[in-house]
Design brief:
By secondary structure, the protein is α+β, with helices and mostly antiparallel strands. The protein contains six helices and seven strands, in the order H-H-H-E-E-H-H-E-E-H-E-E-E. It has a seven-stranded mixed beta sheet with strand order 1-2-4-5-6-3-7. The protein is elongated and about 50 Å long.
Length: 178
């Protein structure tokens, strides 16, 4: 069945239903205002969105009174990434999901006095588990832990993010709550 011109345009501009290349996804998240203005950038999404590298550039825009990176900036850097990765993985599988950050916690260990970086990783087991739970329970909840490292490879913070996904019907809109 052929879509009308209006439907074609609507599907093109509806960001929530997009399947993005790793390169375009990196650009989209890096230009997302809550990240952009805090000098947070996605440096890389690995093939199939299994990995991601995020950088926080220390600057005047995210510096606190002690001249280190503001804790809220560090928290913001870990917030959307796993949610976005799962959303794109399942979009490629043709599975419509709503993907949200359910909860997060962070343990600050050392001041962020240099640029910081965070590495994210999803294993095949993580993805199989998510797909199984979505197929059998209609939803999936999982916690992931990441470390925030400075330029000396010292751990400045450790964050735990909890991803929530639910499968939606054919009429629902797939989206990511980043």
């Amino acid at each position: 069945m052929h879509k009308s011109g209006k439907e074609d345009i609507k599907s093109i501009i509806t960001f929530t239903s997009m399947i993005l290349s790793e390169r375009n996804a990196r650009r989209v998240l890096s230009l997302y205002p809550p990240l952009l203005f805090q000098r947070i950038s996605v440096k890389n999404f690995g093939p199939g969105f299994r990995t991601a590298e995020v950088r926080i550039a220390k600057s005047l825009f995210n510096r606190n009174y002690n001249k280190t990176i503001f804790g809220g900036t560090i928290f913001s850097a870990v917030d959307p990434v796993y949610v976005f990765m799962y959303w794109q993985i399942f979009a490629r599988k043709g599975i419509k999901v709503q993907s949200w950050l359910k909860s997060a916690s962070i343990d600050y260990r050392k001041p962020g006095d240099t640029d910081l970086r965070v590495s994210f990783f999803l294993s095949e087991e993580d993805i199989r588990e998510a797909e199984y739970q979505l197929d059998h329970a209609g939803k999936f909840v999982k916690k992931h832990s990441v470390q925030v490292l400075n330029s000396r490879d010292e751990v400045c913070a450790e964050a735990v993010t909890e991803v929530y996904m639910r499968k939606i019907g054919t009429t629902g809109k797939a989206l990511s709550g980043f």
